[in-house]
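Now for a sample.
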Amino acid sequence: MNSRNEAQLWTPPGHPGFRLFKARFTSFVFDRHAHEEFALGVIEEGGQRFVHKGARHEAPPLSIISVNPDEVHDGQSATCDGYAYRMLYVGIPTLEALFDGAFRGRDLHAFKSPVTVDAPLARSLDQALRVVELQPERLDELLLPMLHTLFSRHAFPRLAVPCARHDAAVRQAREYLRAHALENPTLDALAREVGLSKFHLLRVFKEATGLAPHAWLLRHRVQLGRKALEQGRTPAEAAALAGFADQSHFTRRFKAVHGLTPGAFAAMR
């Protein structure tokens, strides 16, 4: 297997609700991160090892990656030879629109495991992703049936969990971080805003999101930077718009989450 680390991430023309990703990694290691969308894909060669919500998992060849929105995970090769895989990122609003409410809501439908074993479906999904890379106009024809089958067969309705005591405080903290993302808000300011001690806020925020407030803010800034790149901004402009002090910091954080640099991502636009 090629020893280089290679990755591509793009939005197929005419389908803004989808992002496609393909990679071949040997030594690259993802930081702990989460996606706003469902992260769905197929291991084509080798295997991936990762920690998902605190538990260790391994995805062998022809297994399906099935990570729900906002679930924290990392990722690296399970073997010294590396691995190759393809991913599809699709958000809840897109799914709701496509399937006319059949799969409703962040708290109502989810995959129980981040690794789904269904080799026939994995082969079909992988083939569909390969074709759509070259013929994006066939996305609806090929990927929508695959998604419907995947969700129907392996995702399960679940009742919304009762609101935890501090859900409102965590929600308020996230809103504050979004509103002040360019200002480097301190933990002291955040704790005062939500009316909790720093220690208490750290504990309940991490319980709810899987990340400490500062790590969550960095993830949010990376998302802001990616959206700026998608709008045609240069990496330097995207770094500034996302609140990074310099472009090199943005580049490191972006690659740790997306597997490629902002420059490489922008070149694919």
